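QA checklist item 7 of 12: single-chain prediction sanity check.
[x] sequence parsed
[x] length recorded as 314
[x] structure emitted
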Amino acid sequence: MKESLQWGAEGAWVLPPTNGWESTDPTSLSTAQVLVKNTAGVTISNLIVDATNNNARCSGELTGVSFHNASGTVSRNQLTIESAIQCNGYGLLAFSDNQQPQTVVVQNSDFRNNGYWSLAGVGTGLALNAVNKFVTGGDNSQIGSAGIVYFSDATGTAQGNTVTNEIEVYGAPGAALSNSTAIAVDCASATVTGNVITAAQLGVYVGCTVSGHTDRSSTVTQNKILYTKIGDGIYVASAGNSITKNTVVASASSGIHLDTALGGINNTVSGNTITETCIGILTIGTGGSNTLSANTFNDVYIPTEKGTACAPIF
């Protein structure tokens, strides 16, 4: 596609093209402002990708930066992608459909109002490392929006990020992708560590919502999850995950939700501190078990509970 560039004190501005959107990657999942495809060693830095007021068609799934079967580093960028509430919009989308190893590192960047998934890694062979970023959602995101997403067998690390304001207008109690979620690991495997999450409908999700994919185990540790609206601090719906040393404060439902009905079994939940929730650690469903130890509860109505959901208290 043909984008417009303007230079400013902060770096280069990439603006919506005046003549409308034209996809240059027919096999892509989206229409990208900046496309990196079938290559490696690419560095993108000091860009401001601003696609607000773009009037893009929903079928285009507008994206700021897309890595398609490619590797590289993205640093010190700002990406703002506004899309209509019923349309998908991605800040940065890295995906693999050739099952070859690719690594995309995104660091020290700013993602704002991206509508759907602000930063996403998708596909077998794709490793997405998201480090020291600020991600904020829009006030009117559509169903299933999320800040950082690992999906469909992707791997990687989300570390030291701040994710806030992932709120969608149709939110209701439930697992990830039925709520706006700060960090979602869906049919994928990731290390989620040292992040600060505030004002999301659901904090962290690990599980698998797509039939035919295999659950992957993840590590969720030393995160601070503050004030989740409607949903849980951490929702676990897959097996073999390590959920340790997290701090969850003011979660609307439960601090940590173990859904054995959806496969949330054989998980280790240890050393977490949960404050001001309806239920500290909630287990629902039948079959399988999880290991709970050395968790701390402060001002929690019910520290641990099996089988009974808790209505949102915020």
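[x] summary fact logged: The chain has one domain: 4-306.
[ ] second reviewer sign-off
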